[in-house]
Design goal:
The chain is mostly helical. It is globular, with a radius of gyration of 17 Å.
Amino acid sequence: MVCAALAREAGYSVIALTVDYGQRHRIELEAARRIAAELADRHVVLPLDLRAFGGSALTGDIEVPKDGVGEGIPVTYVPARNTIFLSFCLAWSEVLHASDIFIGVNALDYSGYPDCRPEYVAAFQHMANLATRGGVEGTTPVRIQTPLLHLTKREIIELGRSLGVDYSITLSCYDPSPEGLACGHCDACHLRRKGFAEAGLDDPTQYASAGH
């Protein structure tokens, strides 16, 4: 949501893409619709069921780690997820004759996913300009915009507040309850709570566990 707010602040028309990939935390699809209603001129929810592949705690029968993810890339990593997302964004951007693709990846306060690193983003942008008509002809060169890449969660939260972002309509949890309450124990919840605490702001998230 902060990424979209920054794009609007910079004068862009925001065309939002949400991928319904069969994620465990399906409540995020409703959050995406709320955010798009606030910030986007158009919003498409694209069905692509990655449960057919599995291989992740978000798309298969693997428990979401709680209170720590251990060493290495965690099981909440969805194989090639940002590559899949960006590929669809790239295809749609060609149809729209749009050069700028915004993605809210972050390489500081994150879970260690390989597709959130600056070198990945640079490589994808290079590939995109080799793979598209606008990139090859030079009419619509592709730019992957990552305004949150080098910010801490605290800085992101403070930035969103300065832009008037309503964090009560956002969701971070990987394993919410059927009622949509955040678990308070997964890595995404820990990173969110840490960011709000460091910013000295109240987190409007409703948590399932007492004390969160």
